[in-house]
Automatic annotation (TrEMBL):
It comes from the Bacteria. This is Homoserine kinase. It comes from Tepidanaerobacter acetatoxydans (strain DSM 21804 / JCM 16047 / Re1). Pathway: Amino-acid biosynthesis; L-threonine biosynthesis; L-threonine from L-aspartate: step 4/5. It catalyses: L-homoserine + ATP = O-phospho-L-homoserine + ADP + H(+).
Length: 301
């Protein structure tokens, strides 16, 4: 394929971990960032939407950094003009950094004629992000299983039930993944490992079959949520009550602070209002969005 003079890509938000699948499960959501990229006589970054006041407009910008890695590897010594239209809120557990990294890598690769394979880009993306569970669904869409093996990323992806809705309740404070990882223990006990692997196995089979019965049990976790709850007032109460309010299950989205629950369209708004109310009683302002799953991942427009 020849190179393009200008590239526009759409990249989805993601919800990583999906309950018990710490660093290995994730799903792609119908909320998108857009990146326009072209070669330029000087580095330029323009931002609209989420993060407009905090995102750097120079080469330190995360999208620019990802794109520059591809250009460097291809020995292309040129600057870029990048325009970002952001709808994924920053540092809320909805994969904003993975969207930047995957979008930046894939857009730059397209600009130079798609010379690198996706497997190569995925490896770079995972190195930059630190774990594969957001970057895989951001790139390919759907419900994703991923792992790092001998410096390669191995993954599986399949579509989620079309009728499934994700109600994401987004607190108005940022929690950087880097900080939310510092709070995790170095070791866990054997019983907790069995608790999580049994639920992860059941969860994957249930999603593959589109059978959401017992999903509240399969989404339980002992590897990260119990430790991160101290950073997110109201989270535990939300997770303890969404089932009785009509959700199949609830869990922390990525490293938080967003809490997500799985439900049907007709129950979604009541659940969203319930989550906002509990956060508010815990002194946290929040808003909710009702999202569909995404099945495409990165799309060139
Ligand atoms: N559109 C963007 N442009 C540049 N940097 C971004 C953008 N979105 C996110 N980032 C960077 O990623 C960081 C958030 O990443 P992270 O802590 O992993 O949270 P999450 O990926 O869950 O949103 C932000 O603080 C910012 O540095
Ligand atoms: N497995 C990671 C996922 C982080 O997701 P993010 O959307 O918060 O960046 C973790 O739990 O640390």
């Amino acid at each position: 394929m020849g190179s393009e003079s200008m590239v526009r890509v759409k990249i989805p938000a993601t919800t990583a971990n999906f309950g018990p699948g710490f660093d290995c499960l994730g799903a792609s959501l119908g909320l998108y960032n857009y990146i326009d990229m072209e070669f330029s006589d000087a580095p330029k970054v323009y931002v609209k939407g989420e993060g407009v006041e905090e995102i750097p407009l120079d080469k330190t910008n995360l999208v620019y950094q990802a794109a520059a890695k591809v250009l460097k590897r291809a020995n292309v010594n040129k600057d870029l003009k990048i325009v970002l239209e952001n709808h994924i809120p920053l540092a809320r557990g909805l994969g904003s950094s993975a969207a930047c990294i995957v979008g930046g890598l894939m857009a730059a690769n397209h600009l130079i004629g798609d010379i690198f394979e996706n497997s190569e880009l995925l490896k770079i993306a995972t190195e930059m992000e630190g774990h594969p569970d957001n970057v895989v669904p951001a790139a390919f869409g759907g419900f994703c299983l991923s792992m790092i093996y001998e410096n390669k990323i191995i993954y599986k992806t399949f579509p989620m039930p079309f009728w499934l809705k994700f109600v994401v309740c987004i607190p108005d404070f940022e929690l950087k993944t880097e900080d939310a990882r510092k709070i995790l223990p170095e070791e866990i006990n054997f019983k907790d490992a069995v608790f999580n692997i049994s639920r992860t196995a059941m969860l994957v089979a249930a999603m593959a079959q589109g059978d959401l019965s017992n999903m509240d049990i399969f989404c339980q976790d002992r590897l990260h949520q119990p430790f991160r709850s101290q950073l997110i007032p109201g989270m535990e109460k939300i997770l303890a009550t969404v089932r009785e309010k009509g959700a199949f299950a609830g869990f922390l989205s990525g490293s938080g602070p967003t809490v997500v629950c799985l439900t049907l369209r007709e129950r979604a708004d009541a659940l969203g209002e319930h989550m906002v109310d509990i956060f508010s009683r815990a002194g946290i302002k929040s808003c909710y969005k009702v999202l569909s799953s995404d099945s495409e991942g990165v799309k060139f427009l």
